[in-house]
Write a structure and sequence with these properties.
alpha+beta, binds adenosine-5'-diphosphate, Alpha-Beta Plaits, binds magnesium ion, 13 strands
Length: 392
Amino acid sequence: MRVAERFRELYGYEPDGVWAAPGRVNLIGEYTDVNDGFVMPLALPHTALAAVARRTDGVLRVHSSGTGHGVLARGVDSLVPGSGTGWAAYPAGVVWALRDAGHPVTGADVHFSSTVPTGAGLSSSAALEVVTALALSELHGLGLPREELARLAQRAENAFVGVPCGIMDQMASACCVEGHLLHLDTRDLVRRQVPFDLAAHGLRLLVVDTGVRHALGDGAYAERRAWCQAGARALGVRTLRDVDCTQLPEALGRLGAPSAGGGAPGTPDDRISRCVRHVVTDNHRVERAVALLDAGDVRGVGPVLTEGHVSLRDDLRVSCPELDLVVSSANAAGALGARMTGGGFGGSAIVLVESADEDSVTGAVLDAFVAEGRSAPRIFPAVPSAGARRLG
Ligand code: ADP
Ligand code: MG
């Protein structure tokens, strides 16, 4: 394997093994994992590979084939939150999280090579963390269960890298199964693998990577989380997960019903009401999608996706013109449904189409981008793939 060869060139000896962890797209349930709610991602065929050898002298060396990704060489004892720099903070954070949880990680040499596009909302960061956590768990004989790997990877990203993400990305990368969606309750990590055989239904799920990343994203993400928490406090619940969709009208009545339509953001209270409405309805959309899939009505999921997009665009306000353009142009060309996926402000959208319409819908999306003078997005099928695993 190329990644093992590169390891040999870099470090001058054989790796102990090669591991893989995938990126993901989320079918439905956005900003719900930061409210203890439901999500339903699938793993992509795109993976982060890691060739790894265990060390016993307390040294960690990491290298990545991505351009501009240099080597980090550090004593594992010196890893403390805030001490990691650049991309290497992701794997170094995992080593820190493992050691901080009391696991005897005594060092490693690592070389990464990843096909997950970075910053595209497809979780290249979680892939890097989870492949590191799995390799180190196996090489140090820790035998950690999948949800524990995901928890430690999330802790690395939250506390070491400083990104306040939920648990969805790491759970998807660690726990997805080929041919399935992962229906996950992020409150207790109870999960079910939901068969998602699109080909058998004559369907395709497309990922449209807009290639855009608006700087606004990071602060806006934290802001949305804070508004959700404010909503939960005002309603006297621990998290918005505790508000059922049947209780939504009463909850909005107490908070002050959101202003109509998708106009300019209103008062602070209006923003909180809109966040509440998004989270409660998106949790419900996950449950509706699961019920449709269980009933064999995969096409029925299409309109649920588009509803989810409207909610993210108008209530949570995390979309952007490029993501809206994917959704509007795909739907106008006959897609069954489409929505932005991931944190928003750029990144990727997903589109559910009849296989027979794949070319015409793809063409329509590309034409729409050209007509607006925008660079062409990258479009590829979301084939539900395996979660993290050892390759050799
Ligand atoms: P996403 O997870 O949606 O791709 P993030 O901003 O969360 O976007 O994570 C992207 C960051 O993860 C990159 O800026 C880089 O620091 C790190 N990263 C991802 N893949 C690699 C890789 N193959 N090599 C080095 N760093 C990577
Ligand atoms: Mg990420």
